[in-house]
Design brief:
Blueprint (H helix, E strand, L loop, with lengths): L6 H11 L12 H11 L4 H14 L3 H5 L3 H8 L6 H16 L8 H5 L6 H10 L10 H10 L12 H9 L12 H14 L18 H4 L19 H13 L7 H7 L4 H13 L3 E3 L5 E3 L4
Antiparallel strand pairs: 1-2
Helix pairs in contact: 1-11, 2-3, 2-8, 5-6, 9-11, 13-14, 13-15
Length: 298
């Protein structure tokens, strides 16, 4: 890393410009933060707001979700995509209820032992729910650091050094320890990448880091690495899986194979592959009489 950045500038910008998101309200529990972080993986904030509110009202604590079937949770997941996240969250709820007193742990290592929780999610929970001074690195944070500190238009592939780079930017107090604003800085850096220093547009005219940004100083050089591959959805196995799940989510009971066949008629081989993957992932199951249903609802 070639330079640093003024953390107080980012924190002050955040105080004025952060989005009014419900999981940022004081008093929100670690469980509610966990739900938001799982939902926000690869899903825009706008699509998460409604489902998140419904989920925290329906399942205010892990044990409430654990008492529901995994099928109920997948049905409630709706159109958020990547429904295995819902399965892992349901599994996680059972462990939290049974082994952790219905409370989400406040340390990274314990969180990493839970199903569906990776390094980013674990750090986001201890930072945003428990106010711990840990670096939280997502795509937005990596992009801001790449531009403002390293002078590059886009970050390279994710690497272990990303955490160390972010940690070096956390504000310190006069004794060398983390300042009280360190958790806020982590949230602010992420918000800056989501709202201002975005992948689609670098809004340097409204960026608080513009005066000290290394990328701006270098004349905003273009990205010289490989272009990011866009992920298509239309016609993919993922879309086929979604169509099949839609049938089961919309049904009050098990359905016959013909109902699934009608849901994806364009490619029988792809339909069979999608159905098999849903069974392997445990999202759906078959009944004794050969019907199909969401897991736990047979």
């Amino acid at each position: 890393m070639s330079k640093s950045m003024p953390p107080h500038v980012v924190v002050e910008w955040f105080a004025q410009s952060q989005r009014d998101l419900p999981w940022r309200i004081p008093g929100i529990s670690g469980w509610q933060i966990l739900i938001s972080e799982i939902m926000l993986q690869q899903t825009p904030v706008s699509r998460v707001l409604g489902p998140w509110q419904e989920w925290v009202e329906r399942w205010p604590v892990p044990s409430a979700m654990a008492r529901s079937s995994s099928g109920e949770v997948v049905r409630a997941w709706g159109k958020l995509g990547y429904p295995r996240r819902a399965m892992r969250l349901h599994e996680c709820a059972g462990i939290l209820a049974e082994k952790h007193g219905d409370v989400v742990p406040d340390d990274v290592d314990t969180l990493l032992s839970l199903p569906g929780i990776g390094d980013y999610t674990a750090r986001a929970i201890v930072c945003f729910a428990y106010g711990q001074s840990v670096p939280v690195v997502d795509t937005n944070v990596r992009r801001v650091i790449a531009r403002a500190v390293d002078g590059r238009a886009q970050p390279g592939p994710p690497a272990k050094r990303d955490l160390a780079n972010a940690e070096r930017l956390l504000p310190r107090d006069s004794d060398g320890g983390y300042a009280a604003t360190a958790p806020t800085f982590s949230a602010a850096l992420m918000e800056l990448g989501a709202l201002v220093c975005t992948a689609r547009e670098a809004r340097c005219d409204v960026c608080p880091l513009e005066p000290t940004c290394e990328w701006v100083r270098l004349g905003r050089p273009a990205h010289d690495g490989p272009a990011k591959k866009s992920q298509k959805y239309e016609g993919t196995d993922r879309q086929a899986r979604g169509r099949l799940l839609d049938v089961l989510r919309g049904s009050s009971g098990p359905v016959e194979r013909t109902a699934l066949d009608l849901a994806w008629g364009r490619d029988p081989g792809q339909r069979a592959r999608a159905l098999d993957s849903l069974l392997v992932d445990g999202l759906i199951e078959t009944t004794d009489d050969g019907l199909f249903c969401l897991a736990g609802e047979g």
